[in-house]
Design goal:
The chain is of the alpha+beta class. It is built from six helices and twelve strands. The strands form four sheets. A four-stranded antiparallel sheet has the order 2-1-4-5. The longest helix is centred in the first third of the chain and has 27 residues. The radius of gyration is 25 Å and the shape is globular. The N and C termini lie far apart (79 Å).
């Protein structure tokens, strides 16, 4: 039977070991490092010389998946240095605390599999979506420089089937009153291919071509055309109308 001092020393050793592991994990998270494979993007910028813009969040979303992703103005959100040879710079770390700097010239392709999967920007640290359909990386709504980010709203709005209308009601407001507005969507598929979508105000989107994030729709009123019925049928019609209004869906009109 083990002696009491030996038992106490063993307990003390396990306590110290556990405390050290917890402290190391806390330090890892405080430094922005998440557990899991792949290089985690700590910071990224795009441009040339002093004409550079921060694209950290966009790059995290863009590289969350598989396949080859092209380095260009479209995928990185614009041209901060017109006419210049631009470079994408990425500062990254892995879960072991190792650091690395990546540099990609305009026109290069990046192998997304070597980077951490942030889940398309929805749930950092969770596996990214891998099902069919275009995954919405970023979306904005408006005109000119009067634009608002509607990424999460568009993900919810297009999670399903059918035709969804592009209007102020479905997109949460009017950021450019009186102007002809456009919904712009940057998306990628599970193979790493990137595509840009553009829809004018009043257009309809086929939601079936986009990835289904699970909905989360808001409640809306669905208009019901007034009809003439016999008094004996009135109760049945009112009941049907009540049931219809409980649906969760974006407006289509």
């Amino acid at each position: 039977m083990p002696s009491k001092p030996f038992f106490l020393r063993t307990c003390l050793f396990l306590f110290v070991l556990t405390t050290f592991a917890v402290a190391a994990q806390a330090q890892m998270h405080s430094n922005g490092i998440l557990p899991g494979p792949g290089w985690q993007v700590m910071q990224a910028d795009w441009g040339a010389g002093s004409r550079r813009v921060d694209v950290t969040n966009r790059v995290r979303q863009m590289l969350s998946g598989n396949g080859q992703v092209k380095v260009n103005n479209t995928n990185l959100g614009g041209d901060p240095a017109v006419g210049a040879d631009k470079v994408l710079r990425i500062n990254a770390r892995n879960s072991r605390g190792q650091s690395r700097q990546f540099s990609f010239k305009e026109g290069d392709y990046i192998d997304a599999t070597q980077f951490y999967n942030y889940g398309g920007g929805l749930n950092p640290g969770m596996p990214g979506p891998g099902g069919p359909g275009w995954q919405v990386m970023q979306a904005d709504w408006g005109s000119g420089n009067r634009r608002v980010d509607v990424t999460n709203r568009v993900r919810q709005m297009l999670s399903g089937n059918g035709q969804v209308k592009v209007n102020n009601t479905n997109l949460g407001g009017d950021p450019a009153v009186g102007a002809d507005k456009v919904l712009r969507i940057s998306a990628r598929d599970s193979n790493g291919q990137v595509r840009q979508f553009s829809y004018k105000e009043g257009a309809f989107i086929d939601a079936g071509q986009f990835y289904n994030y699970g909905g989360n729709y808001r409640r809306v009123a669905i208009p019901i055309r007034a009809i003439r019925v016999d008094p004996g049928e009135a109760t049945q019609v009112r009941g049907a109308a009540t049931a219809t209004c409980k649906l969760f869906a974006p407006t289509t009109a």
